[in-house]
Design goal:
By secondary structure, this protein is mainly α. Helix content is 58%, strand content 5%. A two-stranded antiparallel sheet has the order 1-2. Bound molecules: arginine.
Length: 452
């Protein structure tokens, strides 16, 4: 520990450099991500402190102005956690006391770094979720566009990777769009769990100051508060885990799409093609055009699906109350968002460029996928289904089967009736439930961008 900058909790003894290095860990690098949230949380907190008489109006005014200046620096990328300072909370307090002297030391009344970090993580996560929601929406729309564009182009459907029944690119693209709509419902649930205020739980047991928690809840645009202070503290790790399930759900959709795309892009399938500028080459085989983008998104998204397990294990068997173990959650949770967002935007980028093979079914190797159509036609004209099935089966075995490639699938969700509009309505009804405008307005008021 650099002795010129002592920790905010310093009394008479200091930890050794070894202890400081190990306990601070990666906080000085990762906490920078939380800086903006930390300052917004502090502005809400001091507004409430003034309201309950713990700060004067002048003090509130001075502190708010200085915190907004710090916010400006953070947004311009001019914020670092200095050598010897252990986390974002200490750095912001240090900047404030450097600028304002003793009044800077008043902001910490009625809170602890335990509820401060809980709050920072929630504010940061809800902003990240908003970005994820927007990227999922964009990918959804691209998939729906491709589904409509290629709704008349048939392709084989498989079970056991054996040619099974007619499918279409309308169905294939549209299926992943609908999968994202379900994932969006998960994201909405995650958002609502995040959007509850932990501030005021302090170290995990509340405070003897008459805190006005409803006031900070409203100022920060939360839906409600985590009422019970012990439960609020228990939310550390639980919040991350819940959100990670939603992330994993989106990641699973993209990983499956990526695998299909790799398979269908192979010469042995040749169902779709990537333009050459979206592929990579080989150092030895001059003909190669590899679908590396899909391979990388598949691996990254598979890795993201490990997130709920990682977070669960970091916190497993912890009793209630704060433990430093919780700090490690940030190391796996925070970087996950950039990885997911990158995969989402890359998938949107490349889905738009996919070209499909409109002549797949000219190849006789797919003729048998029309067998069920013939069975159904016989059954529709009166032959019992089981007899029709047997008759067509025997024709196939005898090499007599002639496919009729005119197909009529009309029920909801089938080749001839994709229901893309209804899927879009489902997606939009979920999107409408995110309170993004209200949250944004609250944050803008706190940062001074919008009058209160
Ligand atoms: N860096 C800490 C964390 O992420 C901040 C909270 C510190 N609280 C404490 N009681 N040591 O958990």
């Amino acid at each position: 520990m650099n002795t010129k900058d002592t920790p905010i909790w310093h009394k008479s003894t200091l930890p050794t450099d070894e202890i400081a290095r190990f306990t601070v860990g990666r906080d000085r690098e990762l906490d920078v991500l939380l800086a903006e949230s930390d300052v917004l949380g502090s502005i809400a907190h001091i507004t409430m402190l003034q309201h309950i008489g713990l700060l004067t109006s002048d003090e509130l005014h001075t502190l708010t102005a200085a915190l907004r200046e710090i916010l400006g620096d953070i947004r311009c990328g001019r914020f670092v956690i200095e050598e010897g300072i252990e986390d974002v909370h200490s750095q912001v307090e240090l900047l404030l006391t450097r600028r304002l002297g003793d009044v800077g030391k008043k902001i910490h009344s009625g809170r602890s770094r335990n509820d401060q970090v809980l709050l920072d993580l929630k504010l940061w996560t809800r902003r990240q979720l908003r970005e994820v929601v927007e990227l999922v929406r964009q990918l959804f729309e691209e998939l729906q566009r491709q589904s409509e564009r290629y709704k008349a182009v048939l392709m084989p459907g498989y079970t056991h990777l054996q040619v099974a029944m007619p499918s279409s690119f309308g169905l294939w693209f549209g299926a992943y769009a609908e999968s994202l709509a379900d994932d969006m419902l998960f994201l909405l649930a995650a958002y609502r769990l995040v959007n509850r205020n932990p501030l005021g739980s302090a170290a995990g047991y509340g405070s003897s100051f008459p805190l006005n928690r409803q006031m900070t809840t409203d100022l920060l645009g939360f839906d409600s508060m985590d009422y019970n202070v012990v439960y609020a503290q228990m939310g550390r790790g639980k919040m991350e885990r819940n959100v990670s399930f939603a992330i994993a759900s989106v990641a699973a959709t993209i990983a499956k799409l990526a695998f299909d795309a790799c398979l269908f892009n192979s010469q042995n399938f040749a169902f779709l093609k990537l333009p050459p500028e979206c592929t990579t080459g080989s150092s030895i085989m001059p003909h190669k055009k590899n679908p590396d983008v899909f391979e990388l998104t598949r691996a990254k998204c598979n890795k993201l699906q490990a997130l709920p397990q990682q977070l669960t294990l970091i916190t497993s068997n912890l009793p209630s109350g704060y433990f430093r173990d919780l700090q490690i959650l940030k190391e796996v949770f925070l970087p996950a968002f950039d990885e997911l967002k990158d995969c989402l935007s890359m998938t949107t980028y490349i889905i738009n460029k996919i070209e499909v093979n409109e002549h797949i079914l000219d190849d006789p190797r797919y003729d048998l996928m029309f067998s069920v159509e013939t069975v159904n036609k016989l059954a529709a004209s009166g032959t019992p289904f089981r007899d029709a099935y047997r008759q067509v089966g025997l024709d196939i075995e005898a090499g007599r089967f002639v496919p009729d490639k005119e197909i009529h699938h009309t029920h909801e969700g089938s080749i001839g009736c994709l229901c893309n509009e209804r899927i879009a309505e489902y997606m939009n009804s979920i999107l409408d439930d995110f309170p993004f405008q209200r949250v944004e307005a609250a944050e803008k008021k706190l940062s001074g961008e919008q009058p209160t």
